[in-house]
Design brief:
The complex is a heterodimer of chains A (479) and B (445).
Chain A (H helix, E strand, L loop, with lengths): L2 E7 L3 H12 L4 E5 L5 H6 L1 H18 L16 H25 L3 E4 L1 E6 L2 E5 L20 E10 L3 E3 L12 E2 L1 H5 L7 E5 L3 H12 L3 E5 L11 H13 L3 E3 L2 E8 L4 E7 L4 E6 L1 E4 L3 E3 L6 H4 L3 E2 L2 E2 L12 E3 L10 H16 L13 E3 L4 E6 L2 H6 L4 E7 L4 H6 L5 E7 L5 E8 L2 H13 L4 H6 L9 H10 L7
Parallel strand pairs in A: 1-2, 1-6, 2-3, 6-19, 8-15, 9-10, 9-15, 10-11
Antiparallel strand pairs in A: 4-5, 5-6, 7-16, 12-13, 13-14, 17-18, 20-21, 21-24, 22-23, 23-24
Chain B lengths: L2 E4 L9 E7 L6 E2 L4 E6 L4 E6 L3 E6 L5 E5 L3 E6 L5 H6 L11 E4 L34 H9 L18 H9 L8 H4 L3 H5 L7 H5 L14 H16 L2 E9 L1 H12 L15 H15 L5 E3 L4 E3 L5 E3 L1 E3 L2 E3 L2 E2 L7 H16 L5 H4 L4 E5 L18 E15 L2 E15 L5 H16 L7
Parallel strand pairs in B: 13-17, 17-18
Antiparallel strand pairs in B: 1-8, 2-4, 2-7, 3-6, 4-5, 5-9, 6-8, 10-19, 11-12, 13-16, 14-15, 18-19
Helix pairs in contact in B: 2-3, 9-10, 9-12
The chains are: A alpha/beta (479), B alpha+beta (445).
Chain lengths: 479, 445
């Protein structure tokens, strides 16, 4: 029997990137997948939602063609089935791409569900649950059920939607992202429970497609992890777009009717109300997939439903590693990829630096977009830091005006003493593509000085990143 | 996949070394265990072994290159069946295992270029860049260093390619971690360090001499280390000196008895031949036990009070000197000390001492008596707190009970780090030493 150097359980963005890096390092590598190569990200998360949102964006622009001096004869309409079909096509293409990359790097793909029998050994059986449909064809040349040996086992099983008791998704009236992504038709009205990235993106998509959308958030702020000022600005824009937002409110009961749901809501003062809509999307976070892997028997240490690791992927059991969502928050694809690379480089005997979670950016692709990295203003103050805050509004930027996107803000937070960039937060057009400039700056430990000295190209939205820094130091030009 | 051969760290504190020579040529087959190259540090010469099989595809750093940073790419091995050209072309691009080359100390051919070292632990040496070299530090690290008046040149970087990053400076400010070298000069208020006298520039010095009237000998790494460490010692350690005369007649007579009593092997060679210096080592070791407060090392954070007497002994070798350390010398008999010193001295001359044989210690002996030197003051080798300079034993007229008398007398001078050992304490130590030397039977019990 082949003994693998590294066997990875789960082929999401964490797992498959880890597998490729492992193979690059000359390690004999296998990856086990029970359902979809590329995992949630590529099949049911990041990627297909971006495809849906792109359809919504173009629809939005088409509806506002006259703002740009264009005339569309007749009415701009959409075909829900075609929008969904395009999104599935994008996923399918990338799913095939992952299969190709794994093959190219000579990574063995084992099809099925893995259980760790003991360190060094994994049994792969038929999946214990049916695959979410539609499922792409199983790639050719995969290995099947059986017992496999591996010196190092990396758990990269990801996460799944969190379920609130009494509000269990049924796939028909109460949706998770799985159903929300492939609706047979678009509902006329929708309640979105939870205003994190997933909830807000669906709210934004369905609102643009003409649906009556209400977002219910238990915390006082939409996008609760974002900077309060940015979230407040975003909220105004969502409301302007017609999304109804109820913060400090929770869904306490859901009554299912023939083709609608009636939600009983309760605000923080205990006042109850009822709200009826065609569908309810439950987007109250995700939980790690820790079941049926054999973790209990192995005695793998866990905390709040996630596997505890040491910063370079090691669990408390020698030879067993965990990366990505299953190894704890932030549950983001790019975090999983990095953790995986660090983990396998550690296995190879290299000396990677543990990941600095303070520098992991977050992006939400609603309209307007949100992007951020580092500390919020509130968090920085909580830590007792004296801060300098810079703000720059889109309305002062030439490119933003030319694009017809005058709403938004770039906010930067510096340590007043050292000039260290503590955080950057943005709302507005294309900000998800801008944030990386600050991420690089933070990783290189630049201070305000280097950011001020750097030349930003004109005319671009990125000039606002410069202006925001200038503003923090009382030198802003276009404001 | 090509395997990168990286500059190995021969000791935990090694920053850079010289690539003395390659023992394999490009295109040579190598197998695990083959010696690829010889690395020369300021302390020793060591071999780099292959731990993978393949073909030496490319030599990146040629023979005789000085100051190659640890972990720098020095060569590339193409593994079996791999295109050698491609591997060579891709040199350095692939992130290959850092562990592909392992240093194998202590088997270097004696013919190797000179390299050895003056003294003890490089741990105490300033960690980083040579003057004038570009210093890599993040902007934030520079800002923090400036604000806290920390000298970046004394900080060892932990970022990519040894770049100094925020955490390094913070550690230096806190006075701990990887930057233990920093405290004395770095964390102290800057003016003292900043105003430290800079020597004349090379150009200025050359102007004093007629061109062609001198020969230029490039510094080897031992010379550079001696220069750097002794400047550091004299600039950072407040020295003071205590001299006493010790009468040697009793010791000389005991020595004769001991050596006459040595068992001989079948060739008539005695099992040991104890020297006066062996007595000096033993006496210093015992004195440090009798005056334990003087058996210390200064650090900014605390005084390190040693339990044993690890005594360094300066050994002159061609081109410089090195200070092997007799560990726990207070527990060792004279014959054992004597035999250890003979072994150390022989291996020091062959430049085969291991770093752990010449690093550390709390005091040292430097003996120039064999050159007829009457008395001198030695420079303390950090991390020692004292060093004993030993002069020649000679017949002198002394006054005993009001009358002149001839005795064999040896003058010794203790150089003392005033931060760690004050005057009275130093006097106590050297007095204890004098008692033992003049009553040498005390060293046999």
């Amino acid at each position: 029997m082949t003994t693998y150097d590294v066997l990875i359980i789960g082929s999401g963005p964490g797992g498959y990137v880890t597998a490729i890096r492992s193979a690059q390092l000359g390690l004999k590598t296998a990856i086990v997948e029970r359902e979809h190569l590329g995992g949630i990200c590529l099949n049911w998360g990041c990627i297909p939602t971006k495809a849906l949102l792109r359809s919504a964006e173009i629809y939005h622009y088409a509806q506002h063609a006259q703002d740009y001096g264009l005339k569309i004869e007749g009415k701009v309409t959409f075909d829900p089935a075609a929008v969904v079909k395009r999104s599935r096509g994008v996923s399918q293409q990338l799913n095939g791409g992952v299969a190709f990359l794994l093959k190219k790097n000579k990574v063995d793909v084992i099809w099925g569900e893995a259980t760790i029998d003991k360190p060094g050994q994994v049994t792969v059986k038929k999946p214990s649950k049916p695959a979410v449909q539609p499922q792409n064809p199983v790639p050719k040349g995969t290995l099947g059920e059986g017992v496999y040996e591996a010196k190092n086992i990396i758990i990269a099983t990801g996460a799944r939607p969190r379920v609130l008791p009494g509000i269990e998704p049924d796939g028909k009236l109460i949706w998770t992202y799985f159903e929300a992504m492939v609706p047979p038709q678009f509902p006329k009205s929708l309640i979105v429970m939870g205003s994190g990235a997933i909830g807000i993106e669906f709210a934004s998509f369905y609102r643009t497609m003409g649906c009556e959308v209400t977002v219910v958030e238990v915390l006082p702020q939409v996008l609760p992890v974002e900077d309060a000022e940015i979230a407040a600005l975003a909220r105004k824009r969502f409301e302007k777009a017609g999304i109804k937002i109820m913060t400090s409110t929770k869904v306490v009961k859901v009554e299912k009717k023939a083709d609608s749901v009636v939600c009983t809501l309760e605000d923080d003062k205990g006042a109850k109300s009822q709200l009826e809509a065609d569908r309810l999307i439950s987007a109250v976070g995700v939980v790690g997939n820790v079941e049926n892997i054999g973790l209990e028997k192995l005695g793998v240490k866990m905390d709040r439903g996630c596997i505890v690791t040491d910063g370079v992927g090691k669990t408390n059991v020698p030879g067993v590693y965990a990366i990505g969502d299953v190894a704890g928050p932030p549950m983001l694809a790019h975090k999983a990829e990095h953790e995986g690379v660090i983990c396998v480089e550690g296995i190879k005997g290299l000396h990677p630096h543990p990941m600095d979670k303070a520098m992991i950016p977050g992006c939400t692709y609603c309209h307007p977009q949100i992007a951020s990295v580092g500390l919020t203003e509130a968090k920085a103050k909580e830590q007792g830091l004296a801060v300098k805050v810079g703000r720059f509004n889109f309305v002062g930027n030439g490119k933003a005006i030319a694009l017809g996107e005058p709403d938004g803000m770039v906010k930067t937070i510096f340590d007043a003493k050292s000039g260290k960039l503590l955080g950057a937060h943005m709302v507005g057009a294309e900000v998800t593509e801008l944030i990386q400039g600050y991420v690089v700056a933070m990783n290189l430990e630049t201070t305000e000085e280097e950011l001020i000295h750097a030349v930003f190209p004109h005319p671009t939205l990125s000039e606002m990143m410069h202006e925001s820094v200038l503003d923090a130091y009382g030198r802003v030009i276009h404001s | 996949m090509p395997i990168n051969i990286l500059m190995p760290a021969l000791s935990p504190t090694m920053e850079k070394g010289n690539l003395a020579r390659w023992l394999k040529k490009e295109g040579d087959k190598v197998k695990s265990g083959d010696v690829l190259a010889e690395i020369e540090t300021d302390k020793a010469t060591m071999e780099v072994e292959a731990i993978d099989e393949g073909v030496l595809a490319k030599i990146v750093v040629p023979d005789g290159t000085a100051d190659v940073p640890v972990n720098a790419l020095i060569g590339v091995i193409a593994s079996e069946g791999e295109d050698v050209g491609a591997a060579a072309a891709g040199a350095g691009s692939s992130p290959a295992p850092a562990a592909s080359a392992a240093p194998k100390p202590q088997e270097a051919p004696a013919a190797q270029a000179p390299s050895a070292a003056p003294a003890a632990a490089p741990a105490a040496a300033p960690a980083a860049a040579s003057p004038g070299a570009r210093l890599f530090a993040s902007p934030l690290a520079r800002r923090l260093a400036k604000d806290s008046r920390v000298d970046l040149a004394r900080i060892k970087g932990s970022g990519p390619h040894g770049r100094i990053v925020e955490r390094d400076v913070k550690a230096a400010i806190a006075g701990g971690g990887a930057t233990a070298a920093a405290p004395t000069a770095a964390a102290a208020p800057a003016p003292a360090a900043a105003s430290a006298p800079q020597g004349m520039s090379d150009a200025t010095i050359r102007k004093f001499f007629e061109p062609g009237s001198f020969e230029e000998i490039p510094h080897d790494s031992m010379r550079k280390t001696i220069a750097r460490r002794l400047v550091e010692a004299k600039q950072t350690i407040p020295h003071f000196y205590l001299t006493v005369d010790c009468e040697l007649d009793a010791l000389l007579s005991l020595r004769e008895q001991i050596n006459n009593a040595a068992p001989k092997d079948k060739d008539g060679k005695p099992a040991y031949k104890v020297s006066v210096n062996d007595f000096v080592i033993k006496a210093l070791a015992m004195s440090l036990q009798r005056v334990p407060d003087a058996n210390v090392t200064w650090t900014e954070g605390a005084m390190l009070k040693h339990k044993h007497s690890d005594v360094g002994v300066a050994v002159s070798i061609p081109g410089g000197l090195i200070t092997p350390v007799i560990r726990k010398a207070e527990t060792k008999g004279l014959s054992q000390i004597s035999n250890e010193m003979k072994d150390y001295a022989a291996r020091a001359r062959a430049r085969k001492l291991k770093p752990d044989e010449y690093q550390g210690g709390s005091s040292a002996v430097s003996n120039l008596g064999m050159f007829g030197i009457k008395n001198f003051q030695a420079v303390i080798n950090p991390p020692h707190a004292t060093i004993l300079a030993v002069g020649a034993g000679e017949q002198r007229v002394i006054v005993r009970k009001g009358a002149p008398e001839v005795a064999t007398v040896m003058s010794v001078t203790l150089s003392t780090d005033h931060r760690a050992v004050d005057g009275a304490l130093g006097a106590e130590l050297i007095s204890a030493f004098k008692v033992l030397i003049e009553n040498p039977m005390g060293m046999l019990v």
